[in-house]
Amino acid sequence: MAEEVLKQDLQNGVAETEKEMTFLEHLEELRWRIIFSIIGIVVGTIVAWIFIDFLVDVVLLKPAKDSGAHLQNLRPFGQLFLYMQIAIMVGIIISIPNIFYQFWQFISPALRKHERRYIFWIVAFSSICFLLGIAFAYFVMLPLTLKFAAQFGSESIKNEFSIEEYMSIIISVMLAAGLIFELPMVSFFLSKLGILKPSFMKKFRKHAIVIIMIAAAFLTPGTDPVSQIVLAVPLVVLYEISIFISKISQKKS
Hints:
The chain has helices spanning 2-17, 23-50, 52-60, 62-67, 78-94, 96-107, 113-116, 119-151, 163-180, 183-192, 198-203, 205-219, 225-252, and strands spanning 70-72, 160-162. Helix 5 packs parallel to helix 9 (163-180), helix 6 (96-107) crosses helix 8 and helix 12 (205-219) crosses helix 13 (225-252). By secondary structure, the chain is mainly α. The chain contains 13 helices and two strands. The two termini are 39 Å apart.
């Protein structure tokens, strides 16, 4: 008799934890996830501000120094606002794992029990992909872009860049590359939902390669085919990895 009561209590507890949330409960959950994400960004921004001189002089200005580009500030207090912008953007990058975690925690009620156990690995994989994209942009894309921009044109005209425009290019390219490197994770998620299938990706592989080459041509300044290939190869590899991940995801489903 006691065992039956205990079993009934456990079943009621499971039913209670797995009951569907109301619309207002979803909104409340979303609000708290956004608050936790913002707190992470604030903490990351504070950490970035502590090391702001190192981030600017050693990290972000290095591509300009290596390419021979000359930078100048044209606005009063321009560097102050620039430093604040950099601290916020670096804070966002630092808190990317927390942002991904809050996102997956928000959608976890829609996942099955055995799928929720993989949230940690999903967050880790998403974060690694994003950081790899930033590293690829910093070490490959930006040197090629800035070298071309600094050396292009007549020798009678000195190429000097506004520090605001320079930092805008640096940050936008790195963030864009980070998002592009999330392609395998997007493939996994869409495959789990049944929206994307590996057969579809294989069928349109040739079309995807053409699109990738066009995208590489736009991302690479100039007409240097070597630079375009350097940018296109990782994107093709990412596409193939996405097919493999989509196939594994569907098998598990």
